[in-house]
Amino acid sequence: MKKLKTVMVGVGRIGWQYHMPALARHGGFDLAAAADPLPDRRAETEKEFRIRTYDDPLKMFDAEKPDLAVIASPSHLHAEQAVAAMERGIDVFVDKPMAVSLAEGEGMIGVMRRTGRKLMVFQPMRVERMTLALRDIIAGGLLGEVFMIKSGGFSYVRRNDWQALRRYGGGTLNNGGSHAVDCMLYLSGSRAASVSCHMRRIASLGDAEDVVKILMKAQNGIILDIDINFAAAADGLPQWVLLGSRGSAVYHPEEDGYGWFDLTYFSVEELPDMAINPGTAAPDRKYMRDPIPWIHAEIRLDAYEPIEFYTYCHDYFALGKPPFVPVEETLEVLRVIGECRLADGNFPLPDSSGSFR
Q1: Which of the ends of the chain has fewer CB neighbours closer than 10 A, N or C?
Q2: Mean pLDDT per 10-residue run, the chain (357 residues)?
Q3: Cα separation, 69 vs 305, whole angstroms
Q4: Do 71 and 56 sit in the same domain of this protein?
Q5: Are 13 and 86 found together in one domain?
Q6: CATH of the domain at 204
């Protein structure tokens, strides 16, 4: 197996909990070094992973001359660190969001094309059980033509970390929205034709939004409805609903963390004959009662195995296969997030001077 000399930028939550262990497990990556500004985290990394550490990613890039840099620093640093790596001839795998604005993302892709380097963004919802099951349900056709997909994430969290602050690119739109928008567009197989959005700051201790409501219409006509709400003290709100012309699929969680989709649908051949009533008088003054012969089925998530994202990384960065997350699709996510920010108007991010515009 071809091995890539790899370095890690940032050993905080996602870097330490996911990227570093995944790199160490995969046989195609030679994890050589990591950079982080905190001495205690560098010491812990040296002890746990037996690799070199640096206090500055640029020093690491110059000293190590790796094949690949994995960037898991705070969001506002992604663009400058990715550009610095690509300018040095290093390919880049960056955690979501790719950047804090469409302009930054376009700049990164410009450097990618000018330098001939490779660039891909970590969008893990694409490989999770939930998404695999939803794609199967859509492709299976039992629900007919899918016309609406609804997703919801609900909890109550008084956020007080950097993700609560706009100056670092924080907020629920950049954080959870990067996951949800990407996954919705991936499921729909389409770009967004129109975007509306409302945001609030309710429980967060910072200045960034923690409640986001997005409504998109995809170019193929599917309505995409997203709730990301960290100020919802309520259990039992739906996490996923798929609506089609012949039925629906509703997700039900279980304590094992898997759960199932409950499918309710009908067969066109089994529907009783019915014709439109052209008059305005309801027969027998009765309300409609459509005797649809519903069929019920379950799709369990434990029937699916999540895919290791770094398998796709190795395919792209080492073997030259097409990227699992093309940069054009990531730009569309950034464009939608920008449209959301404009539509709401209350949570601009700072410009290069640090001013909120």
Answers
A1: C
A2: 95 96 96 98 97 98 98 97 98 97 96 98 96 97 97 95 94 96 98 98 97 98 97 90 98 87 95 87 83 94 93 97 97 97 92 54
A3: 27
A4: yes
A5: yes
A6: 3.30.360.10
pTM over 0.70: yes
Residue 143 CA to residue 122 CA, distance in Å, equals: 30
Name the E strands within the chain: 4-9, 29-35, 52-54, 68-71, 91-95, 119-122, 146-154, 192-200, 211-218, 223-229, 240-244, 247-252, 260-265, 295-300
Instruction: With respect to residue 98, please indicate whether it lies within any of the assigned structural domains.
Output: yes
Do residues 143 and 164 share a domain? yes
Q: Tell whether 138 and 112 lie within a shared domain.
A: no
**Could you tell me which of 27, 28, 97, 94 has the C-alpha nearest to residue 57?**
94
Task: Let me know: does 162 contact 74? Beta carbons within 8 Å.
Answer: yes
- Note whether 153 and 101 are within 8 A (CB): no
pLDDT in tens, 167-182: 999 999 999 999 999 9
119-122, strands of its sheet edge to edge: 52-54, 29-35, 4-9, 68-71, 91-95, 119-122
Q: How far apart are CA 68 and CA 62, in angstroms?
A: 13
pLDDT in tens, 316-354: 999 999 999 999 999 999 999 999 999 999 999 876 555
The DSSP code for 15 is: I
Backbone angles phi, psi at 22, to 5 degrees: -65, -40
- Give a yes or no: residue 346 inside a domain: no
Q: Is the Cβ–Cβ distance between 171 and 314 less than 8 Å?
A: no
